[in-house]
Amino acid sequence: xxxxxxxxxxxxxxxxxxxxxxxxxxxxxxxxxxxxxxxxxxxxxxxxxxxxxxxxxxxxxxxxxxxxxxxxxxxxxxxxxxxxxxxxxxxxxxxxxxxxxxxxxxxxxxxxxxxxxxxxxxxxxxxxxxxxxxxxxxxxxxxxxxxxxxxxxxxxxxxxxxxxxxxxxxxxxxxxxxxxxxxxxxxxxxxxxxxxxxxxxxxxxxxxxxxxxxxxxxxxxxxxxxxxxxxxxxxxxxxxxxxxxxxxxxxxxxxxxxxxxxxxxxxxxxxxxxxxxxxxxxxxxxxxxxxxxxxxxxxxxxxxxxxxxxxxxxxxxxxxxxxxxxxxxxxxxxxxxxxxxxxxxxxxxxxxxxxxxxxxxxxxxxxxxxxxxxxxxxxxxxxxxxxxxxxxxxxxxxxxxxxxxxxxxxxxx
Length: 413
Ligand code: ATP
Ligand code: MG
Prior knowledge:
It contains 16 helices and 16 strands. A hairpin with a 2-residue loop joins strand 3 and strand 4. It is elongated. Bound molecules: adenosine-5'-triphosphate and magnesium ion.
């Protein structure tokens, strides 16, 4: 066993005993997001690298440190680290801007980031998310947040915290950036290496830093004063106020967090995160916001947009595990051809059925049936001669003998 090949670090098999949870998350996503008019989209897992360097932003950790990139036929290709850029590419390429707004899309699937694996953090993980294109008004932001909250509720997750903030627009943000840089200047040497880089390239993201010594600096009164200042312009402020009003009217509880800036370059105005207290340090289950300039940045027409992504592994870790589904029936018979025919007949009638392919002893077959199925369909000599079957309810232990033609009907009683 010394030369067995193991799964790559930071990746995991999703085994049959765990698949129920994944189907549950996917089915609920389809149900809830459809209610809001979102349609599913599936884009490729590989894209040209430029999509992410231009789309996600080459000052972000994702692009700088976390991408899986390789060359093939002189092209640089990347395994998608997130799906907004891919969905935007598809929106532009397939002329979706010609459709009447809003265009509402949802997706789920694997994402890849070269990060340090730990609880709640993998190198291949899965996201479910939505993107809404074409609407500038805060109704869109509110509807997207509401869809996220109602999806989480449909999964059975009620006590999560919704945090929101407004980053303003590129114009009104400029002054804030200048003020932030100024107040942090005396502490520059004490900032972590990443923050020292961010200082010039993207000072807003300093606030996203998780390093304790940086967080302490941001708690200083003069820094807090800048962080808490209302820097956003009248239009952005009105948009933010409207969003808060809609959320209140829709019964969504939220708190405002001025430190919430999100790790990506493309956001403007609304940003939000949904957090759980039961997840330890990787406590964010969802992150999203408005990205009005991304479509244009990737070569499309100006199109306002808003969306979010949720980490499916983190959702699963918050939910009680589901028992693997049992077969509807297991055919028990030492007359193998009859068992085979019976199993196939029941499958044609829509049931999930197995029988013993190796023709073991009757008692062994029954033992197996009670482990894997809800019903044993027993075909002894008498049953076969009389065109009958015996149905044993394996949960309750009751057994009845009925005409073969009535088998499925009697099982559902
Ligand atoms: P974090 O701060 O946890 O690194 P992020 O801001 O990088 O999150 P986003 O890019 O906003 O995450 O992705 C949205 C969601 O996807 C996160 O809230 C989280 O639930 C999940 N997620 C992100 N990275 C990972 C990962 N490496 N492993 C598992 N889930 C992840
Ligand atoms: Mg991250």
